[in-house]
Amino acid sequence: MAKNFRRVEVGTTVQFTWVGSTAPSSLTLAIKTATETLVSSGPAVQSGGGSWYRFVTIPDSFGRYPCDLTAEWTATASTHVGASSPFVTRQLIKVVKTKAYGVSDQ
């Protein structure tokens, strides 16, 4: 089964979006490497209508390309009985670096 990756260029700023029908009490986005090393983390901004977003600049510090990352949203919402439950969604990212003559790493 093929994995579906979001392909992004090193150094670009990428918008990640989370949509939910219930407003979470907290919502964070963490960008991690395959070995769970944290690259970036921070809270989301609400944009109305059940949508939240966060902009992340993809750093140029991984050493070799392509590089696989995971974008992981963690939303915490209260249930009908008052308990807090975390909801986690993930997206796979393939980071590429375009060479000076215009050919990107595959």
Q: Tell me the distance between the termini.
A: 19 Å
Give start-end ranges of low-pLDDT stretches: none
Give the strand line-up of the largest sheet.
Answer: 1-8-7-3-4
Number of helices: 0
CATH class: Mainly Beta
Q: What overall geometry do the principal axes of the alpha carbons give? A: elongated
| Share of helical residues | under 10%
The arrangement of helices and strands along the chain is EEEEEEEE
Summarize the structure in short.
With 106 residues, the chain is mainly beta. It is built from no helices and eight strands.
Overall description:
This protein is mainly beta and 106 residues long. The chain has a single domain (5-96), classed as Immunoglobulins (Immunoglobulin-like, Sandwich). Helix content is 0%, strand content 58%. The chain is built from no helices and 8 strands. The chain has strands at residues 5-9, 13-19, 26-33, 38-43, 45-48, 51-57, 67-78, 84-96. The strands form 2 sheets. The chain has a 5-stranded mixed β-sheet, with no helix packed on it. Strands 2-6-5 form a 3-stranded antiparallel β-sheet, with no helix packed on it. A hairpin with a 4-residue loop joins strand 3 (26-33) and strand 4 (38-43).
Which key phrases capture this entry?
single chain, 106 residues, mainly beta, Immunoglobulin-like, 5-stranded mixed β-sheet, 3-stranded antiparallel β-sheet, 0% helix
